[in-house]
């Protein structure tokens, strides 16, 4: 079905990046994204190394030390002393 829609600038950018990253047309990218967004969530548990964000995106779990802004500032100050 052919139709015209108006996308917000950020939505257009996301869809364009998605389409270029997969080597598909913008129309196909938007179709895939809508289908993924409306598909039922799998109840299958994720591997321990992954976690689901509140928006549904699956990301790698953080691991190792957390580096704070204060640690970076202290390191920069030490470097210039």
Going across the major beta sheet, what is the strand order?
1-2
Rg, nearest Å: 20 Å
C-alpha end-to-end distance: 66 Å
Overall mean pLDDT: 89
The H/E string reads HHEEH
The tally of structural domains comes to 1
Helix count from the secondary structure assignment? 3
Poorly predicted tracts of residues = none
Spatial shape: flat
How many beta-strand segments? 2
Characterize the largest beta sheet: strand count, sense, and whether it forms a barrel: 2 strands, antiparallel
Helix and strand composition category: mainly alpha
Residues in helices, as a percent range? 40-55%
**In percent terms, what proportion of residues is strand?**
5-15%
Task: Provide an overview of this structure.
With 81 residues, the chain is mainly alpha-helical. It has one domain (9-79). 47% of the residues lie in helices and 7% in strands. The chain is built from three helices and two strands; from the N terminus they run H-H-E-E-H. It has helices spanning 9-22, 26-38, 69-79, and strands spanning 50-52, 58-60. A two-stranded antiparallel ribbon has the order 1-2. Helix 1 (9-22) packs across helix 2. It is flat.
